[in-house]
Amino acid sequence: MPNNLMYRLSKPVIRLYGRLLKLDVQRHAPLAEGAKIIVANHPSTSDPFLIALVTGEPARILIIDHAFRVPVFGAYLRGMHHIPVTPGAGHAAFETATCHLQDGGTLIIFPEGGLSPLGGGFRDPHTGAARLALITGTPIIPMGISLSPESLWHTERKYGGKLAASRWALHGPYGVTVGQPVYLDGDVEDRAYVSQASRRVMQHIIELAEESQQRLEAPVLWPSILEPSLPA
């Protein structure tokens, strides 16, 4: 389960970060109670922190394993009991995520499997979120993120012999649109159906990200910053 003490200690820092980025949140529906899978696009390395802030409750995040080797950031991920995903060996992470959902927890997944393309757009989705939803009966909550590419600080370092790129958001605006829950009903062993469902969920994410982008470009952006929507 997530480390509630570390969550409470880190929350004020992340809230401050959200304010510095002028975090703008719009919700099509309140978040469901109990177990749920949050899915979002992944334009920046800052996304896990800010999506967790929007969620407003302790959650575990599926994150690529090399992120756990990054100084300070990796210690935070381990302290929060987030779930490392090793490419080509994701079975253990999948089992941990399944147990977390069955225990009523919230899980955050970035279906693109890594950062979105540097030049813009979206990667094809992985099928993990859809498979977890079908196995556990858990609703999927899509979220769409938009930010300015000029706000990003780019870094590249080697961790464990692997070159890892990071893109940290340094200033706003940073927009998030929360969509309606998506409920999947089908055979998890039907690969064609699971692939189709994953693309459908990704399309929801894309549409929500475009909505966030349109909102951030609107002339009335600054008066509409939704500070009250940030969880207390």
Characterize the structure shown.
Strands 1-9-6-2-5-3-4 form a 7-stranded mixed sheet, with helices on both faces. Strands 7-8 form a two-stranded antiparallel ribbon. It is built from 6 helices and 9 strands. The two termini are about 20 Å apart. Helices cover about 35% and strands about 20% of the residues. Helix 3 links the parallel strand 3 and strand 4. The protein has one domain (about 5-220): Glycerol-3-phosphate (1)-acyltransferase (3-Layer(aba) Sandwich), CATH 3.40.1130. The protein is α/β, with parallel strands linked by helices and about 230 residues long.
Could you name the ranges where pLDDT drops below 50 across 5 or more consecutive residues?
Answer: 221-232
* Biggest sheet descriptor: 7 strands, mixed
The overall pLDDT, averaged over residues, is 88
Relative strand content? 15-25%
At CATH level 3, the topology is: Glycerol-3-phosphate (1)-acyltransferase
Task: Draw up the topology in text.
Elements: H1 4-20, E1 23-27, E2 36-40, H2 47-55, E3 60-64, H3 73-79, E4 83-85, H4 91-102, E5 106-109, H5 128-136, E6 140-147, E7 152-159, E8 162-169, E9 174-178, H6 191-217
Parallel strand pairs: 1-9, 2-5, 2-6, 3-4, 3-5
Antiparallel strand pairs: 6-9, 7-8
Helix pairs in contact: 4-5, 5-6
Keywords summarizing the entry:
6 helices; globular; alpha/beta; two-stranded antiparallel ribbon; 232 residues; disordered C terminus; Glycerol-3-phosphate (1)-acyltransferase
Tell me briefly what this model is:
The chain is of the alpha/beta class. Helices cover 35% and strands 22% of the residues. A 7-stranded mixed beta sheet has the order 1-9-6-2-5-3-4, with helices on both faces.
